[in-house]
Design brief:
heterodimer; B: 952 residues; Multidrug efflux transporter AcrB transmembrane fold; 63% helix
């Protein structure tokens, strides 16, 4: 009897240890999420960008989006007609270019606009660019609460000391299966919740999970930006020379 | 009346109890009274201009602009941090639509980094070291966008502009701004507030604070006078109870009817205290006379009321007419003031009728207490005065005539000036802020021009810029701000020319960079069919403001409503000459306006000739061609060029070819460049070559344009004073004006277009309609002030006529009607004469004095006439009747005049000039009114001997 209880205790203890050893830390989950996000070598997408005001009125734009690796991104506006061809190229955090077809000019834009909103959307340049969370943030796993709990990790992200970021905190929900971020809350330097990003309709395309719909809402103005993927392609072999000023201009034709 | 008095005396317990309950209920309501300091609610809401003004408030949140002024060295980390903190705090406030400050203003600039469209000061990144701070200071102080708009020229003060939402309680929001600032600012003493919401807030507070101090002072003074006059507790106590009740009831009812205390209704308690006591004084005087001759309290009351009820009702009625005549005013606060005061007067009568009988009956019967002292002394001095008046009636009449003549000469000297800010106490912080905002920030009074049309069309924007240029030249007007200016500024940063781009795509591209920014929402309507040009007036002086508004309206009237955009390249030679002249004139006009606003004058002919030469000259100098060639070469070798890695030698050769062709043909198009490119660059995709040709055409035309403009600008600079280079943004503006000569499109007015010789259909690009409407607060105030005098004069005449009719009806004699209003008319005339001689300008407050004077003054006339008639029919002798009137009712009139007059004189101690003026002038009219009642009224009566006196 004594033997049995000892072995039972040992089994229980072992299972506890094993459980702990298998459990992921917040930083590890974040790392995995980041890897899921950056898994494709490149991504090309056509997206519908819908800007919705508090009163429900909306403006629709179409963009073509190219990304390679973590840093290189090129965005071209396809519609409406009067902004067709306006383009944005980001090569690194401090090398960003803007193309205005009406003047046929490419202009470098200052790096410190990263906390400004991108082209009237609710996404800031920083939100658009954020793919390396672990460089900037430390994550703590939070206790799952309520109905969002099952299937989701909830992480509390705080900036690493010295990180050059605009938020004092982010709270992210990570899908346990796909490691895709399903929701992000952004907090101002004063600690106030200012924006919420929700991602839905997560699909596997070319072997990678991707949210086909993202909605960013600015709470104060109740203004929302919805990004809907119309068409998406991964690993099509975009070359580095695709991400140049010359090509920014060419894509804008 | 006898029955009523009997009933009240019989049921006095019930009456007193009911009155007590009513007073408790309304007293509770009175404590809940709200303050309203929202200027726009003061205006007549159905006026088209006010409607438009409210519309702007709703659509652009630009109606109410609260300004927070920080007086400190602006470019220090401490002040910048404070601006940032306050901005963030105000942005969070309910009721605030937009906040603009150095901390969050959208800035466009070209730096070593490239193009910047972002905040002037990055969130959380305040420059800390001397060098960065100096850089920021130099940059900000060099830009018109900021100087006098957000920062003073010396960098010693800055404002945070807080735009309030339409329909919120401005009083509450301004209060909250003040409170928040107090908790955030380490040195609140360096912060003050201005702008209409704060002006109104401070004025309302001033009135309420004045009331807290002055009302008790006024009551105390009246108590002293009442006691000195009657020397009896009842004589002091009863009139004061009636006064207090009428004030409590009136203010309580205001709350019940959802009215709030504002600039004018805030004065109602004071006026009621003054007026409501009058009835009590007459009653107590008569009552003591009766008691003095041995009557018991109850019969004495009954007889007093029997004799006085008619004059009391008449005086209340006539007073109400005086105040209700204010209903004709365009200012809703004046109308509200009229109604509330009329109601208060009526309530005072009700209180008098109910309370006096109910309370006086408790007086000690004869033989007990001090009532045995006998009748109140007849004032023998007044009997002597009566004799004097009787003996010198002609002299009095002649003297009155002289007064009328003297007054008539003074009245035209009255100035109209509604400087509301003078309502602030001189030397107080709000006053200081207002003056500083005028001096350093172009004032606080907004001018807003509503623009209708396609706001995305470059020529709508160019028309807006034209009007803006003009606005800057109007005396007292400045600090213009509009989407046209913002687009020009962005074009300046991107392309080095401060001008609206000529193509729709150009405008759309630049506007795209502003998407989602607050600045856009404040300047352009959502559907892009309307925009706002904002400016400020740095004066409240009505005449100057009116001149500015008139000038703006006249200029707007001269602008074409329909424009036709034509392509200049396609109209030659048919209409070339005519269009050339139009363009030369337009560019010259723009240049002159941009110089004029900076007080620079250049001879139009000389300027026109420089512009004309620049417009017609197609050839460049040798140096010019070299510069174009360099530009083309630079482009071909840049990362932007459509063809990659063009060998330098090929680039140089191609640039040479292009410039050679340019010189030969005085111009070069895309097709020619494409041919040259095709032969110069062999292995390139045709679409890349085409794109390259398109880009090169832009490069060439910009380079040529730059050279032409620089050359013309050089000639113009020689006409300007030597130090003009240092004048902020002058050269930027002149260059922008000149740039239009490079444009291919020109907008002609429909009239100009029709007068042109026939031009090819293909030359006409499009038609567009543009409308302008001057709608800002300056225009609203100007209109209101224009209407103020006629409506006040109208209401004055209506009141006088109605009073005359009432008197004629009651005394059943037209002569009585006319006689009754003579003293009061004379009083009003003298009041205006005093205003004319002492340069007290006519404003919303002083314009009301005539109505107040009627309300207060007519009482004495009615009491005097009733008493004289009564005594005359009793004694049958004019002199005796006059003496009796003087020594009985006359005493009451005198006590009343002293009480009310001195009561209002207390207001001379008030903080705001408007209250002081009102107090002083009302005190004067009350005393004058009594004087004329004692002199002119009997003189007229004795002279014309009206029929009604002899009637029983």
């Amino acid at each position: 009897m004594k033997k049995l209880s000892m072995s039972l205790l040992a089994a229980v203890l072992f299972s506890l240890v094993a459980e702990n050893a298998l459990a992921l830390t917040g930083n590890e989950i974040l790392k995995k999420a980041e890897e899921a996000m950056n898994a494709p070598r490149d991504r090309t997408a056509t997206e519908k960008m819908i800007l919705i005001k508090a009163d429900g009125s909306a403006k629709v734009r179409t963009i073509r989006f190219y990304q390679k690796g973590n840093d290189k991104r090129l965005v071209i506006f396809l519609s409406p007609a009067d902004v067709k061809g306006v383009g944005f190229l980001s090569l690194s955090e401090d090398r960003m270019y803007l193309y205005l077809p009406a003047f046929r000019k490419v202009r470098r834009i200052a790096s410190h606009i990263k906390n400004e909103n991108f082209m009237g959307t609710d996404f800031s340049y920083e939100d658009m660019a954020e793919t390396r969370y672990t460089d900037d943030y430390l994550a703590t796993l939070q206790q799952a609460q309520g109905k969002e709990g099952p299937g989701q990790y909830i992480l509390d992200l705080r900036p690493r000391p010295g990180a050059d970021v605009s938020y004092s905190r982010q709270k992210v929900w990570v899908d346990k299966e796909t490691f895709i971020l399903t929701k992000t809350e952004y907090y101002s330097p004063g600690g106030k919740l200012i924006k919420v990003l929700t991602s839905g309709n997560i699909k596997k395309v070319d072997g990678y999970w991707f949210p086909m719909k993202m909605t960013m809402e600015t709470l104060k103005t109740a203004h929302r930006t919805v990004l809907e993927v119309v068409e998406i392609k991964h690993d099509s072999g975009l070359a580095d020379r695709f991400f140049t000023e010359r090509n920014l201009k060419r894509q804008g034709r | 009346m006898k029955k009523l008095t009997d009933t009240i005396i019989r049921c006095r317990g019930v009456v007193i109890a009911l009155l007590a309950i009513l007073t408790l209920v309304l007293g509770y309501e009175m404590l809940r009274v709200r303050l309203n300091a929202d200027f726009t609610t003061y205006l007549r809401q159905d006026d088209p201009l006010v409607r438009q003004f409210n519309y702007i408030g709703k659509e652009y949140a630009s109606k109410s602009m609260a300004l927070v002024l920080i007086e400190d060295d602006v470019f220090t980390p401490r002040t910048l941090k404070l601006i940032q903190n306050l901005t963030a705090a105000y942005e969070e406030l309910d009721g605030v639509a937009y906040v603009t400050s150095l901390a969050n203003v959208l800035d466009f600039r070209e730096t070593e980094w490239g193009l910047e469209v972002g905040r002037l000061i990055r969130r959380g990144k305040i420059p800390q070291n001397e060098e960065d701070l100096k850089k920021l200071r130099d940059y900000v102080l060099s830009k018109e966008m900021y100087v006098k708009k957000l920062v003073s020229e010396d960098g010693k003060s800055t404002v945070i502009v807080v735009r309030l939402k339409q329909g919120v309680s401005e009083f509450a929001v301004t209060k909250e701004i003040g409170r928040l600032t107090g908790t955030i600012a380490p040195r609140p003493e360096r912060i003050s507030y201005g702008g209409m919401p704060f002006l109104m807030y401070n004025m309302t507070l001033l009135i309420v604070n004045n009331l807290k101090l002055l009302d008790p002072l006024m009551i105390l003074l009246m108590l002293v006078i009442l006691f000195m006059s009657f020397r009896k507790a009842g004589g002091v106590f009863l009139p004061m109870v009636v006064v207090s009740l009428s004030v409590v009831w009136t203010i309580g009812l205001m709350t019940v009817f959802n009215l709030s205390l504002n600039l004018l209704t805030g004065l109602v308690p004071i006026i009621l205290i003054a007026m409501a006591s009058a009835d009590g004084i007459h009653i107590m005087r008569r009552y003591y006379e009766k008691r003095g001759v041995g009557q018991e309290p109850a019969p004495a009351i009954k007889e007093t009321f029997l004799e006085l009820s008619t004059p009391l009702i008449i005086t209340t009625f006539t007073t109400m007419i005086g105040f209700l005549s204010l209903l004709s005013s365009n200012f809703s606060i004046i109308r509200q003031f009229g109604i509330v005061t009329a109601l208060g007067v009526l309530l005072a009568l009700v209180a008098t009728f109910l309370l006096f009988p109910a309370l006086l009956v408790f007086s000690r019967p004869k033989g007990k207490g001090r009532d045995k002292a006998g009748p109140p002394k007849e004032f023998f001095v007044l009997q002597h005065v009566a004799e004097l008046v009787f003996n010198h009636k002609k002299a009095i009449l002649i003297f009155s005539g002289l007064i009328v003549i003297a007054a008539a000469t003074a009245i035209p000297r009255i100035e109209k000036d509604v400087d509301w800010s003078l309502c602030l106490q001189k030397g107080s912080k709000p006053y200081h802020a207002e003056m500083l905002l005028r001096r350093d920030f172009g004032g606080t009074l907004p001018v807003q021009v509503l623009v209708g049309g396609d706001i995305n069309d470059p020529f709508t924007l160019k028309a807006m810029r034209y009007l803006e240029r003009y606005l800057e030249t109007v005396p007292s007007v400045g600090e213009t701000h509009s989407i046209a200016g913002v687009i020009s500024e962005m074009n300046n940063v991107l392309n080095d020319r401060y001008v609206v781009p000529e193509t729709k795509e150009g405008v759309a591209n630049l506007r795209f960079l502003l998407e989602g920014e607050d600045i856009l929402k404040q300047l352009v309507k959502e559907d892009d069919t309307e925009a706002l040009i904002q400016a400020k007036v740095d004066t409240w002086h009505t005449a100057t403001m009116a001149e500015a508004v008139d000038a703006i309206n006249a200029f707007i009237g001269s602008l074409p409503e329909k424009l036709v955009v034509v392509e200049t390249g396609s109209i030659f030679p048919e209409a070339g000459e005519a269009v050339f002249k139009i363009r030369r004139k337009r560019i010259t006009d723009n240049l002159l306006l941009d110089m004029k606003r900076r007080r620079m004058e250049v001879e139009r002919e000389r300027l026109g000739s420089i512009v004309g030469t620049a417009l017609s000259e197609k050839e460049l100098t040798r140096d010019g061609y070299v510069r174009v060639r360099r530009k083309v070469e630079e482009y071909l070798l840049s990362n932007e060029a459509e063809i990659e890695a063009i060998p330098p030698a090929e680039a140089a050769a191609m640039a040479g070819d292009i410039v050679e062709r340019l010189g030969r043909n005085a111009g070069i198009g895309e097709a020619e460049i494409l041919t040259l490119a095709q032969s110069a660059i062999k292995q390139a995709a045709p679409e890349d070559l085409k794109a390259l040709a398109q880009s090169l055409e832009v490069v060439v035309s910009e380079a040529v344009g730059e050279i032409r403009v620089t050359s013309a600008l050089g000639k113009i600079r020689r006409l300007l004073p030597p130090d003009s280079d240092r004048v902020r943004d002058l050269l930027r503006d002149l260059k922008g004006d000149l740039w239009e000569m490079n444009e291919n499109l020109v907008a002609l007015s429909m009239g100009e277009y029709r007068r042109l010789p026939a031009i090819p259909v293909s030359a006409k690009v499009r038609e567009l309609a543009v409308s302008f409407e001057n709608t800002g607060l300056a225009a609203v105030i100007k209109k209101m002030e224009e209407e103020l005098v006629p409506t006040q004069v109208f209401s004055l005449f209506i009141a006088l006529i109605l009073v005359a009719i009432t008197l004629a009806f009651i005394f059943r004699s037209p002569a009585a009607g006319i006689t009754g209003i003579i003293p009061i008319s004379l009083t009003i005339l003298v009041n205006f004469a005093v205003m004319g001689y002492f340069k007290i300008s006519l404003d919303s407050f002083t314009a009301m004095i005539a109505s107040v004077a009627i309300g207060l003054g007519i009482d004495t006339d009615v009491h005097f006439m009733s008493c004289f008639k009564r005594e005359f029919s009793r004694l049958g002798n004019e002199l005796k009747a006059l003496k009796k009137t003087f020594s009985t009712t006359g005493v009451a009139i005198l006590i009343n005049a002293l009480t009310v007059g001195l009561g209002f004189a207390v207001l001379l101690l008030a903080g705001g000039q408007h209250i002081r003026r009102l107090g002083g002038l009302v005190a004067l009219t009350v005393l004058l009114s009594a004087l004329f009642t004692f002199t002119v009224l009997p003189a007229v009566i004795l002279w014309i001997k009206p029929e009604f006196l002899r009637r029983k």
